[in-house]
Amino acid sequence: MSDTPTDTNRDSTAAERADHRNTLNTDTMQWLSALVAIIGLYVVASPFIFEATDQAIWNDTLVGTGIFLLAGYNFVRLSRNRLASVGVASLAVLLGLWLLVSPAVIDMGSSTLATGTAASGLATAVLSAYNAYANNKADAPDRVGARA
């Protein structure tokens, strides 16, 4: 009886490590990023749909465009079988939190716009925070054709 490892022991250890990997379903996270991007587009369009002040138009247009671009960037990364950028998702969280509080700081022009902006901000913050958390905890997906 020898304590030297055999090939079968090395194979089982590699299989155990593969079983314990924290993999991420990039398709699900990709759709989550797409949903946040759509919320960003809604924020851009909402001041032109509802009565809005000039300040609300600028706020929602700029912040909504930022959310759309950030979520779109993570969508593209995930579509290429890479993890989403935690920093980009975290910045989207901050923009979402700004949208949540901005109706209290800026005169929005109508209560419908204020409610829609705050709800969009809450949804953006929650979804982007989950995106950042899940991608931070996940191991990098296996790449097709990667060299060992």
From TrEMBL:
Entries under InterPro entries matching the protein: SPW
- For whether the record's keyword set contains Acyltransferase, the answer is no
- State whether keyword Membrane applies: yes
Top-rank taxon, per record? Archaea
- The annotated region (Disordered) lies at 1-20
Q: Indicate, by first and last residue, each region the UniProt record lists as having compositional bias (Basic and acidic residues).
A: 8-20
| Pfam families per UniProt | SPW
Q: What is this protein called?
A: SPW repeat-containing integral membrane domain-containing protein
